[in-house]
Amino acid sequence: MADDSFLKWPFFDEVHRDLTLSVRQWCANNLDSIDHDDVDSACRLLVTELGKSGWLNHTAVDPSRSNDRLDVRTLCLIRETLAYYDGLADFAFAMQGLGAGAVSLFGTPDQRKILQDTRSGKLICAFALSEQKSGSDVANIETLAKRKGSEYILTGEKTWISNGGIADVYVVFGRTGEAPGSRGLSAFLVPAGSHGLEIVERLDVIAPHPLARVRFNGVKLPPDAIIGQPGEGFKIAMSVLDVFRSTVGAAALGFARRSFDEALSRCSNRELFGGPMTDLQMVQGHLADMALRIDAAALLVYRAAWCKDQGQQRVSREAAMAKLFATEESQKVIDTAVQLHGGDGVKKGGVVESLYRDIRALRIYEGASDIQRVVISRQALDNHREDL
Ligand code: COS
């Protein structure tokens, strides 16, 4: 990575700087050898390797320490670094965190025992929230978790579930009906081997990773499968997203920084109109805009992470700004990098061509850009009303 100056920003402690350099070294030494032809095997291998290296320890709280908490700056720095080197490595790391997030934040000591295995890479997790009719409108979830005696019976279908098909455990959000809408949902820990859990479709996307539609055909869940209190599912989902949305911005930054470095090399080495491309003022203008977008996005990402790490309970606005701006601006940075590469930019298998595909889904998953706008504007309007 050419520009390290952000590491000197006051958001970080020495431990963050040291960790970033170690992760970077690890990526340079380990990621090239991972074959991506079969994404399931590649992901399993990546989770194992990330576990062995100790990086996954940062994705979930340590169950042996009751007051342990997630450090969002660390999550962001690791995602940014992994994304710079390999989008699939970032995906494997991120999903361990998102999948286990509800257990880290709301799990009982017994439920938290699984975190030992998610942190070591022995167990793969998935976060099963989205449905065909409720990706953005979470309060509208239709999957039913019906109470029968002391058990819950889970019936319904989830889609766009990352790690679907390879996960060992799913955190599933279903309607328990304590109240209408957002107040009637609960979260459950569901082992992949549960009778009635079925992978009905594997979904192929432009930046391939394990993704599936998962059906629950009357899956019986014991009373201790519920995470938090009945009816708290919506708040649990939003609290998990409050932590992980900033990290999506960080991954986008990693992609953008890589594309910028590729563009700097390309423009320095390619001759055009009798000199290197970097002599052309229009090219210099593009490079300046890319650098500006990256720094502005980084400021928002690390501001949000810092706020959460300082103990701010709700960071919905900061996280929404970080995700919205970093993903949208990174898309522009990468698009410019493709443009500066000319025909080589769209050639299959090239670095910027693959970044162009990698970045796109980040503007959709964990809350599409327009949902982030809803979160930001609602808070601005609430503050305005309070001032009246
Ligand atoms: N932490 C804790 N509680 C929260 C919260 C948060 N971050 N955000 C909202 N809540 C609470 C609210 O305070 C409210 O509580 P009360 O019922 O006690 O008043 C309740 O949850 C409902 O909140 P709200 O009225 O904002 O809910 P909406 O149905 O209007 O939904 C959006 C809000 C659209 C922002 C939400 O559905 C959302 O984030 N959607 C996108 C989901 C997403 O990311 N999907 C991708 C799937 S993961 S890959």
Write up what this structure looks like:
- With 388 residues, this protein is of the alpha+beta class.
- The protein folds into three domains: 5-124, Butyryl-Coa Dehydrogenase, subunit A, domain 1 (Orthogonal Bundle); 126-231, Butyryl-CoA Dehydrogenase, subunit A, domain 2; 235-382, Butyryl-CoA Dehydrogenase, subunit A, domain 3 (Up-down Bundle).
- Helices cover 51% and strands 15% of the residues.
- The chain is built from eleven helices and ten strands.
- The protein has helices at 14-30, 39-53, 72-85, 87-106, 109-112, 114-120, 233-269, 281-309, 316-340, 351-360, 369-387, and strands at residues 125-128, 144-148, 151-162, 169-175, 185-191, 197-202, 211-221, 226-227, 271-272, 275-276.
- The strands form three sheets. A four-stranded mixed β-sheet has the order 1-4-5-8.
- It is globular and about 80 Å long.
- The protein binds coenzyme a persulfide.
- Residues 129-130, 135-139, 182-183, 234-235, 238-239, 241-242, 314, 316, 365-367, 371, 374-375 line the site of coenzyme a persulfide.
Helix content: 40-55%
Please tell me how large the radius of gyration is.
Answer: 21 Å
Largest sheet: 4 strands, mixed
Q: Catalogue the unreliable spans.
A: none
Tell me the name of the CATH class of the largest domain: Mainly Alpha
C-alpha termini separation: 48 Å
Hetero groups = coenzyme a persulfide
Strand segment tally:
10
CATH domain fold name of the largest domain: Butyryl-CoA Dehydrogenase, subunit A, domain 3
How many structurally independent domains?
Answer: 3
CATH level 4 superfamily of the largest domain? Butyryl-CoA Dehydrogenase, subunit A, domain 3
Query: What is the arithmetic mean of pLDDT?
Result: 97
Compute the number of helices. Answer: 11
Based on secondary structure, the structural category is alpha+beta
Strand proportion, as a percent range, falls in 5-15%
Give the name of the CATH architecture of the largest domain: Up-down Bundle
What's the order of the H and E elements? HHHHHHEEEEEEEEHEEHHHH
| Overall geometric form | globular
Biggest sheet: strands side by side, in what order? 1-4-5-8
